[in-house]
Task: structure prediction
Amino acid sequence: MDLIKTVHVFCAYATGLGFFIRGLLALWQSPALNHRALKILPHVIDTFLLVSGIIMVVTWTLWPTDHAWLLTKIIALLLYIYFGLMMLRWGTTTHKRWSGFVGGLLVYLYIVGVAHSKSLLSFFGFMQV
Result:
């Protein structure tokens, strides 16, 4: 596996773990959520994730218009960002924070499944008989 893909995969799992940790802190309304590292590190990881993804798309000529799974990942990414905002910024109620947390985790798992299977069915594609 080349370096760019390794960086991308590492950042993909790191961003998921970070979402989970920050989600728990948001649900607990922990003051630790305001720690400087938890404000900066996710942006650094997500920047590396995005840049490495763009480099792979350009290098391997994988255009979203030619590969439905890639377009699906991009659309799901926007939904993931929405849920993250719902959880961390717009989560004025416990219900909103929970909705953002669960929705974000489900979309994240879907994106990982699409990345691994190269199918819109995500992990559900492995269950086909």
Notes: Residues 66 and 129 are 27 Å apart (CA to CA). Residues 3-27 form the longest helix (25 residues).
